[in-house]
Write a structure and sequence with these properties.
It is a single chain. The protein is about 70% helix and about 0% strand. By secondary structure, it is an all-alpha fold. It has a domain at about 55-174. Helix 7 (about 110-130) runs antiparallel to helix 8.
């Protein structure tokens, strides 16, 4: 009886040790899942958004708006994946944004345009946070870049729309 008990225990141990050893299987798919998304000019170029340009009338109005011109230059650098302005110190960006909003030409001071500048402020600060914090996913950083490009494009659209509306109102009064 003791022998059959010992044999049964040994048989159980052998059967239990014959199972799949999942801890020794190496998953090679982990490397493909964790591929880094890099912010490149090509990735930015592939964004799906409408990029509005200023009309000739709008160009004439904003020619003296220095902070707009500076932001437009930085946006062009951003399109080439140069993030140096956008990942600088937050205080520098806040100063820039304050000057940007304070120097809006009188002809363009309307609620839609002022609200677009606030949106630019928000997206600019959000992008700065995404770029300066290390544990932010690259996809979120790319999304922040896209949001800033969209907000700047929408500002251009509102400027064009405001000037067109002014021309229409002037014609209507005559």
């Amino acid at each position: 009886m003791k022998t059959s008990f010992v044999v049964l225990n040994i048989l159980c141990l052998v059967l239990m040790s014959c199972g799949d050893d999942k801890s020794t299987i190496i998953d090679t798919d982990i490397e493909t899942k964790d591929q880094k998304i890099v912010i490149t000019a090509k990735a930015i170029e592939n964004f799906d958004y409408t990029d509005y340009a200023l009309s000739t009338d709008a160009d004439k109005v904003i020619v003296d708006w220095e902070k707009y011109q500076e932001l437009a230059i930085q946006i062009n650098y951003l399109k080439k994946a140069d993030l140096s302005f956008f990942n600088s110190e937050k205080e520098v960006l806040k100063t820039f944004i304050g000057e940007f909003r304070a120097t809006i030409p009188e002809q363009l001071r309307s609620n839609p345009i002022v609200s677009r500048t606030v949106i630019i402020e928000t997206t600019l600060l959000k992008l700065n946070e995404n770029l300066t914090i290390d544990n932010i996913d690259e996809q979120d950083k790319l999304l922040g870049v896209k949001e800033l490009l969209e907000s700047f494009s929408n500002l251009n659209y509102q400027i064009n729309k405001k000037l067109e509306r002014d021309i229409y109102d002037k014609i209507e009064k005559e």
